[in-house]
């Protein structure tokens, strides 16, 4: 740790090149001069050679951070710096301290399974940024891209479920990890408020049910939660799924991670209708593999929380502050609204019941 608050990670082994948003192809944006604080962090982390002055390539795709690819003499790295105001239509502010907790999540998850996270290269807490390897698209497929193109293979979904529950199980009931993530306020600011509470403002008849979900989720403290387990944040690498963008890291309800990911598999049925049956198989495979690893609580209790959260998250991705970009027609939006509102007011306790009802509601 230097005087500037820089944390440096040293590695003897050479790991695959890496980057979180590797669906974004190289050289689609011009090279630009990097901000002074980024250059300073690279230098303090010992990543710059004598006289080296790299340019950066700004990567798009995220709403919460500035992300650059930087080609160094020793190879490409990715720099991620948190934004205080997210790039969405609605006003959405979040503390930049979440960047440090993302680093902490990567450290904890990496100690459990090194293959589950990108390799860290350095962290500048004062500048609110960290440096990691760049995941080359040639060796790492973005799960969202696979699903968008209709490649709904159940094997990656099962692997995601197994790796996610591995992290939850290894951190469940551990006070020392809970104390490392005092992020209740951050999680509320970037998950519960813009998703469930924002949806409640748009749907008064369901407001009580949505606020009850907020309260129940906030008061459940079982394991380390990623908070954004979405196909856009999961790379399918040679050694299995790699989880990215843990800005919402929180010690709380693991059912949130499970429901958050399953929510995307349901919504993809409207994005790529021809692959709906495949998405349903992915849903079931993920649930089954996750359930097999639950050893810190009774599975039916966790499943019931996830099943209750799922319709709230469906509604939030239509009428919250971060709607999914691929559902634009009012017919599709209304299908999601009507389905979610019914289950919010009359919840079911099993995830496969949610899936079964959803598949029956889809257009032929």
Salient structural properties:
364 residues; alpha+beta; Phosphorylase Kinase, domain 1; Aminoglycoside 3'-phosphotransferase, Chain: A, domain 2; 2 domains; 7-stranded antiparallel sheet; 14% strand; globular
Characterise the protein shown here.
This protein has helices at 36-44, 98-112, 143-148, 154-171, 175-180, 184-202, 207-218, 254-271, 276-292, 299-319, 330-345, 351-361, and strands at residues 6-8, 31-32, 56-58, 65-72, 75-82, 120-124, 129-133, 141-142, 223-225, 234-237, 240-243, 250-252. The protein is α+β, with helices and mostly antiparallel strands. It has two domains: 6-133, 2-Layer Sandwich (Phosphorylase Kinase, domain 1); 141-361, Alpha-Beta Complex (Aminoglycoside 3'-phosphotransferase, Chain: A, domain 2), CATH 3.90.1200. A seven-stranded antiparallel beta sheet has the order 1-6-7-5-4-3-2, sandwiched between helices. A three-stranded antiparallel beta sheet has the order 8-10-11. The termini are far apart. The model is unreliable at 8-27 and 86-93 (pLDDT under 50).
* Gyration radius, in Å: 20 Å
Number of helices: 12
CATH topology of the largest domain: Aminoglycoside 3'-phosphotransferase, Chain: A, domain 2
**Strand arrangement, largest sheet?**
1-6-7-5-4-3-2
């Amino acid at each position: 740790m230097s005087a500037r608050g820089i944390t440096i990670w040293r590695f003897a082994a050479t790991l695959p090149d890496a980057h979180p948003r590797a669906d974004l192809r190289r050289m689609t944006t011009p090279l630009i001069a990097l901000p002074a604080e980024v250059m300073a962090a690279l230098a303090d982390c010992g990543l710059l050679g004598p006289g080296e002055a790299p340019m950066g390539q700004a990567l798009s795709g995220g709403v919460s951070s500035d992300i650059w690819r930087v080609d160094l003499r020793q190879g490409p790295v990715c720099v991620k710096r948190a934004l205080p105001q997210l790039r969405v239509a609605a006003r959405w502010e979040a503390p930049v301290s979440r960047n440090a907790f993302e680093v902490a999540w990567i450290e904890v998850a990496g100690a459990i399974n090194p293959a589950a996270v990108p390799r860290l290269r350095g962290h500048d807490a004062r500048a609110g940024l960290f440096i990691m390897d760049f995941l080359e698209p040639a060796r790492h497929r973005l799960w969202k891209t696979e699903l968008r193109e209709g490649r709904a293979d159940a094997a990656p979904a099962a692997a995601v479920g197994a790796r996610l529950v591995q992290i939850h199980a290894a951190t469940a009931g551990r006070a020392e990890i809970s104390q490392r993530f005092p992020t209740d306020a951050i999680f509320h600011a970037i998950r519960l408020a813009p998703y469930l509470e924002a949806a409640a403002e748009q749907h008064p008849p369901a407001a009580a049910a949505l606020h009850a979900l907020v309260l129940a989720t906030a008061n459940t403290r079982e394991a380390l939660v990623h908070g954004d387990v979405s196909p856009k944040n999961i790379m399918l690498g040679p050694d299995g799924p790699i989880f990215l963008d843990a800005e919402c890291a929180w010690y709380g309800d693991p059912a949130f991670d499970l429901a958050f990911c399953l929510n995307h598999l349901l919504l993809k049925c409207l994005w790529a209708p021809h692959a709906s049956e495949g998405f349903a198989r992915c849903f079931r495979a993920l649930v089954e593999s996750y359930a097999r690893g639950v050893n810190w609580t009774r599975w039916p209790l966790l499943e019931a929380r996830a099943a209750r959260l799922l319709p709230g998250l469906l509604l939030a991705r239509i009428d919250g502050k971060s709607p999914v970009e691929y559902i634009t027609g009012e017919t599709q939006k209304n299908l999601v609204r009507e389905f979610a509102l019914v289950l919010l007011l009359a919840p079911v306790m099993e995830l496969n019941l949610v899936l079964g009802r959803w598949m029956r509601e889809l257009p032929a």
